[in-house]
Structures are given as structure tokens and as C-alpha cells.
Amino acid sequence: MVSYFDHRTGTVPRPTVLLNKHTDDAHDNPVLSIDAAGHLWVFSNSHGVNRPSYVHRSRKPYDIRDFELVYTGNFSYGHIWHQPNDGFLFLHTLYERGGRSSYAMSSADGKQWTKPSLLSRIELGHYQITAHAGRRTAAVFNFHPDPAGLNARTNLYYMETPDHGKTWQTVSGQPLTLPLTQPANPALVHNYQAEKKVVYLKSVVFDQAQRPVMLYLTAAGYESGPKHGLRQWHTARWTGAEWQIRPVTTSDHNYDFGELSISADGAWRLIAPTDPGARPYTTGGDMVLWSSRDQGATWKRVRRLTAGTDRNHTYAKSPVNAHPDFAALWADGDTLKPSGSRLYFTNRDGTAVWELPEQMSGETAKPKRVARPPQTVK
After folding, report:
1. Is 93 exposed, middle or buried (0-12, 13-18, 19+ CB in 10 A)?
2. Tens-place pLDDT, residues 260-271
3. Is there a single domain that holds both residue 52 and residue 136?
4. Calpha distance 275→252 (Å, rounded)
5. Would 214 be classed as within a structural domain?
6. CA–CA dist 154, 140 (Å, integer)
7. DSSP assignment, residue 14?
8. 113 within some domain
9. Total domains present in the chain
10. pLDDT tens digit sequence for 190-233
11. Can you tell me the distance from the alpha carbon of 118 to that of 106, in angstroms, rounded to the nearest whole number?
12. Partners of 253 in the beta sheet?
């Protein structure tokens, strides 16, 4: 489904049902992009090769009421970036040869695409996150060792393209020969495999100096529960000469997903489920806003954003060029049994949280402001 938040009226319209893929697999979640003319593009991923993937385009700029199907194929875990003079660069995963390979393809108009180009396939493959600033698009990834696979995901890698995917390089500008096929390669930021730690990627952004900052979590193993203790959150910041890796805080599950943002004044903000929540040692928890004024050297717990329900919160995501009144969007759910799932958003400073309507009696509705939670941790 597709919808939006109207900052002028403070309302949301009834969502448009765009596609029913007849699956309950959440890996099929879509991603959204907007081109220079204001057309909305929805890239609907597939988990593996058993279902097709789709690209839809709104028929009118900034209008969710009518879409056309412009592409059918197969892709997973898509990251789409649009540049006015170049069109789309689409970083994605293809399931092949018993694992996950990282590819890129591009299109000037979103309808005719180049052949996917293999970026990396180290042993059994990768998960990745991406970011874009100016002419640069960054890809951050781990790798799945053979034969352990995704449960042993480890290491931290960074590479970027300055020319819409034509060439790729390290953060310092060293050209890379693609595809990357070995764990030890010039894109390696830190060898966590040697430390016997798994790596879960969360977010990557560029700071006010256009230098990348990565947010990720490490743990002693993939299993849920207290067996591996608290998981450690980190940032890795490129100083211009080296990667500076620093701790942030801890939480109790590898799939506690949060979002890092950096303001023009240099303030770092993290929104993440770092409190245990209703279901400790399961996915997510209660959302907390953290801030740093010294590039991640120290962090201050600003405020707790959620509490007091029987569901956990996780997967905070920020819109591209986020308006300060809509700085992060996330969902909740019961992590131990099937349940409903509500959507929430907050402003940049976390002074209020709103819940999007689960049901609408009219064509528009106002999100409900959620009561301020107590600030003590359970």
C-alpha cells in the first residue's frame, strides 16, 4: 500500500492498495523513490526466485491514486537512488549459486534497465545497506562464510561509486576490481571474523563533511535469548584518514534495528529499540532517542519514545531528506505469536510520537498522538 503524511493539514489519506503478492513473507517489502518530476516509484522485492518482483510508477506526479506497472523481473533487498541527470541506480541482491550476490543496474527512465552487474560475491554472499549524497552512492555489506552462511554473517565492508555505478572505489578513492570475491579485499573496514563476532548492519549516512558513518551491531552468535548476552551497537566514521570505530550502547537482540541521522549542525541522533520492551530478548523493544555532539565519542540518552504495550517496536527508518516533523517511521508487533502491527512516526527531537490509523472511516484521518511514556527502564 502507498500513502503519505500531509504536513500542511496534519493528516494522512486512505492508502492505495498497489499490489497483492499473496504471501506473508515480510522479505517482500517494497521500497519507494521519487524522480525529478515527482513521479512515485515503488520497487516490490521478492525473497528469492519463487515470486516475481515488480516496479510501479505513479501516472501523475505526487499522486498515489493511480499507478502503472513498468517492470517485472526478480530482485531482493533493493536499494534505489535517483539522480536528476542520470536516472536510477538500483543496488539489489540476486539469489543464485546457493547464496546472495550483490548487483547493480541502472536506468534513465525506470523502464529500460541495464543488465545487472555483479559487485560482490564473497563465499555465500552478503547483506547490504546503502546511502547517497551528491554524486556518491555508498554500499556497506557483511559476508556469509561458507559453509555456515547467514547465521555466521561477519566482517564490515564499504565501497562507493562516484559515477552512477560505472566504477567503484574504496572510501579513500582506491579503484576496486569487481566483483569482490575474497574476504580480505581493499573494501574491508574491520575483520570481525577474526574476533568470532557476527555483524548486523543497521544504517549508513553521510555527515556534514560528506564523510560516511556506519551504524551496526555485533554479537557473539546469531541465536536469540540471553545466551550471548547484550549486543553491542557501534559506529564507524571515516575521518578522512582512517575508520574510527566507537561503541554506542547495547540492546538484547540482533534484529533491534535503528536509524542514525546527522544534522547540518553536526548533531548525531539515533532512534532504536535499545530498551527490552514487552518481550525481552526478542526482536525489537521500546524505542529510545540517543544523541551525540562529539561525532559518536559519547552518547546521551535523550528520552524513551515508547512503553506500556504488549508489543515490541523495531525497524525505525528515516525518509530521504526527512522533514524534522517526520524523522522516523517504524512498526510494532508481538514477537512470540501472530498479531496486528501498528505504524508510528516521531519528530527529529523525539518530543512526540504519533500512531497511524489502523482503520479509517473517511478519506483522510489525523494520526493519534501517543501518550508520553515513563522515562524509567523496566
Report:
1. buried
2. 999 999 999 999
3. no
4. 8
5. no
6. 12
7. P
8. yes
9. 3
10. 999 999 999 999 999 999 999 999 999 999 999 999 999 999 99
11. 13
12. none
Cell of 100: 546472495
Residue range of the domain that includes 22: 1-74
In angstroms, the CA 210 to CA 261 distance is: 13
CA distance 312 to 276: 8
Among 55, 74, 93, the domain-final residue is 74
- Tell me whether residue 38 is in a domain: yes
d(CA 234, CA 249) in angstroms, rounded, equals: 8
Q: Are residues 240 and 293 in the same domain?
A: yes
Q: How many Å is the Cα radius of gyration of the chain?
A: 20
- Count Cβ atoms within 10 A of the Cβ of residue 374 and give its class: 0-12 exposed, 13-18 middle, 19 or more buried: exposed
Hey, what's the cell of 286? 521500546
Let me know how long the chain is. Answer: 378
Mention every residue, 6+ apart, whose C-beta is less than 8 A from residue 359.
none
Query: Burial of 338 by CB count in 10 Å (0-12 exposed, 13-18 middle, 19+ buried)?
Result: exposed
C-alpha cell at 58: 505513479
Q: Is the pTM of this model over 0.90?
A: yes
Start-to-end C-alpha separation, the chain = 35
- Whole-angstrom distance, CA of residue 108 vs CA of residue 212: 26
Cα–Cα distances in angstroms (integers) from residue 46 to residues 70, 74, 198, 283, 377, in the given order: 16, 7, 25, 22, 38
Domain boundary among 27, 49, 74: 74
Q: How far is CA 371 from the centre of its chain?
A: 27
